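Two folds, back to back.
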Amino acid sequence: MGIITNIKSLQGMGVHADRGARSPSLQFRRYNLVYGFNGSGKSTLSRLFASLEAGGPHPKLPENGTFEVALDDGSAFGCPTNPTGLEQRLLVFNSDYIEQNLQWAAGRAEPVFYIGADQAEAANELTRVEGEIIQAEMKKEAAAAIERAAERTFANFKRELAKSVASRLHLGSRKYEAPALAKDYETWKDDDRPALTDEELKAAEDTRRLDEPMPRVEPILFDKTTIETAYRFIVDACGQSLATVALDEVQQYPDMLLWLKHGHEYHEAHEISDCLLCGNAISAERRALLAAALDDRVDQFVARLTKTAERLSDLIEMSGVSAHWTDWGS
């Protein structure tokens, strides 16, 4: 911050002539000497600067008087408008200061001053700390400005997002604004369900767009006893295995069962003595082992599984019909 270079305006300040925008600059420098007779306005001038030191109009200035000073950096301060900002930059020592702080009759001073090397060091430390305070206040104000800007940006974001959501909700005359959006986010912040896909969102939006409600969904009617029967049969079927098949290959690779069975039947039907896969001869012992292991029980087991799968599909699709669910054991 620079130095005071001019009194831009002055109105109603006793013996001083009024000043305005057309008044020539006083061109103050770093050091200025002001002198004059008693009553020429020296004390009034000092009280202008004392007002800026105090951050408010001096009590001994004319009640309706106004003034404004300019600094070399282009800033301006004055009373009654913009009186604060120079409190830490101005010190005025005049008759008012003496009257207020040095009370000779009482034999005391306010404030108390100490003289000595220690106090000089303390004064330097005070100056340093005051400088840090000023820097901290500047940083605080800058951070507050950033916070205010972020809050404005966030508020605009919520408004725009609420408008977007409202346009997809198709609420008619009802409103959906930023407060409702914030409340929903707070309510759902712990919801761990998966997010809807674009297709699911579009389907939901299409439903919201309908003028009439969707058709009534009729309750599914079923016979409870048939479900229990089906459940018991499924448990029984799932508990069965091909343990009766006496082939190590099937026990180790159960998915190859039907492949072995169909291959064996094909070789037998076409009287092929060599394996079509590996080219080796199939011995009589191997043929007998395959015939014993892959008998009709395998076909019956597979057929039962197939029939069970078909009936399960029917059970899922059917509602209110139980006539076909009573013959699970057949």
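---
second:
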Amino acid sequence: MPAAAKGQMKIAMPDAGEVSALWSRPENARWLLVLAHGAGAGMRHPFLEKLTAELAAVGIANFRYQFPYMEQRRRAPDSPPVLKSTVRAAVRAARETAPDLAILAGGKSMGGRMTSQAASENPPEFENVRGLAFFGFPLHPPGKPGIQRAEHLAHVKIPMLFLQGTRDQFADLNLLRPVCSKLGALATLHVIETADHSFHVLKSSGKTDAEVIRELAQRVRAWAETIS
């Protein structure tokens, strides 16, 4: 991956054909974030497009990719083993594409959770991953509060950044805060007032959605500085 460049590629999957990937690297890149999409939208979703632009502005390259079901235009997400296998393949491909950059991994909603599940199994692909960034970690389904989805996080051995809104129906902060506290120094929680699961904010916040996305990128950069 040369400096100040972008491109696209295919990632070969053991049992699911190929999936598409997009990468972009600013000239001043120090890190590469392997970024998975959420359950209902692919890697070209406007949120991810805007987020990766802001990440580039703070020196973070990105490597986005599709899960097989999205690549094949199916509605239902793949099984967890297939999703985790895709995460591992993407991390491996990203490292081969930019071997000189520090690797971070994560994703939006389900993509972040599948990344953390993959990391919790300590596969060889994650040996040099510096940390995980979650853009709206889906702790529980809306209206069904619980922490079962966080149980695997105790097996993650690298730093984790949770970026969450106070109106996120997928993560009651009264439940997420104790989860992060239990993870100790490995977990950092950054809360955005009035933001929902899509990081839309109310006018009363005094911020625009664009400013929030910029804040997300800047927060990832500040966190990356502390773990590199």
